[in-house]
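Q: Focus on the chain.
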Amino acid sequence: MTSRVHKLAGQPAPVDRLVNIPRLITAYYSEQPDVREAAQRVAFGTSGHRGSSFDLSFNEAHVLAITQAICAYRKLHDINGPLFIGFDTHALSAPAFATALEVLAANGVEVMISADDEYTPTPAISHAILKYNRGRSTGLADGIVITPSHNPPDSGGFKYNPPDGGPADTQVTSWMEALANELMGARSSGVARMEYAKARRAATTHAHDYVESYVSDIGNVIDMDVIRGSKIRLGVDPLGGAGVHYWARIAERYKLDLRVVNDEVDPTFRFMTLDWDGKIRMDPSSAYAMHRLIALKDSYDVAFACDTDHDRHGIVTASCGLMPPNHYLSVAVDYLFRRRTGWKADAAVGKTVVSSAMIDRVASRLGKRLYEVPVGFKWYVAGLLDGSLGFGGEESAGASFNRFDGSAWSTDKDGIAAALLSAEITAQTGRDPGQAYRELARELGEPFANRVDAPATPAQKKKLGLLDRAQIRTTELAGEKIDQVLTHAPGNNAPIGGVKVTSKSGWFAARPSGTENIYKIYAESFRDEAHLQRLLADAQTVVDAALAQ
């Protein structure tokens, strides 16, 4: 990152950095956003609508409008099966759940809420949708996940998953976004709503045991027998997230030597260590946020953590500590496509354009087709559903893969399954994933990678997102001939929303941030650190020149 690492990064969160929960909740109910202000409108990014009640970007008005828009979408597309809904441990999630249920019940939607008000991970919602819809062509189910993922404690988030179980695509979210803002502009006059107590008692509201449904089935995705038989010691930190009570149930059912090192749930997340910028962020891929679990690495054969909605994973091994996400994705691909003999013979490997080229090399050696797509897990949904993809992964520590028989498990990211896979790899091969990655690097070449941020105005960000290949006029990259200039992903020809430039020994990609006035440059060299720095320098020169046109 170009930003300086905060002096308190990796340290326990001081009291003055904890969010004031009563004020946050009060703002959720009392503040009224203004749709004329862009920052206060409903806006679906790659993972739903997110914001904070303090900023008037995630308030009751947003949730009322989005939920009514979902009800309208369901009616328009004849989606009349149950809607599976769950929420995570962020302070704004429970109020948003209550608001959503009031609207869903008033619209007569059959709603499946978690038994005993248990928190619900994103993959448990996706799993429930797919399990219900299997073998059906009518009366299909869909779902809502209330979570801002790993974002700070003052954040709220709201995601819709259609009957395919994965994140809704842009066509769906754009329609919902437009209607939601129209409703919000009318001060929710078009929103049907009933009192929360009545919504809980409504004949359409049903309790569903997400924990039992998920835990009892995960043995069809992960080889629990080999983990149990190996007697390896496992540690897990749920980071105070939605899967906090799933891990003990998994350990009990499958008789694993697995210890939950922290089962505390606190909406201030005061038990976290601060991230690189001094903020509390439940990011399992950050060495700063994962400081406590990394310190325990020698106590376990392998340890892992998940973010707040448990769709991302962080893997800590005795051999190397916290693994960079791209390293673990490479190991997972190499292991899964050798061991999952029940998958389709031509099942492809899914990766994003900004994920490591080590995955390309692993796939090539395995003789597997690479399916390279823009950033966003939605691009993997159809392939995971029909088995043409065995695995889909993102550089931000998100992944999902299919059951042993090749059928879909979760078409959204699943941090729990990805974390448990690290235990299976260790038990089955006798090497932890860190050791496995070192072997891959010896055999296929060692990459050097980094991501930096550069300032950009909104106009420049828009220009970068619409960049044309003809605007990249240089023919060399860090002293090598340019092989490809990509503005569309090779796997599905969808726009990258930026540019990727490749050469024999390295590549860079640049894309605008969806939330900040910056653009991100990703680069990777298969030569050395000096070559990586040349890639980053050339990348900034190339992009700056293109933006100046």
Q: What stands out?
A: The chain has a mean pLDDT of 95.
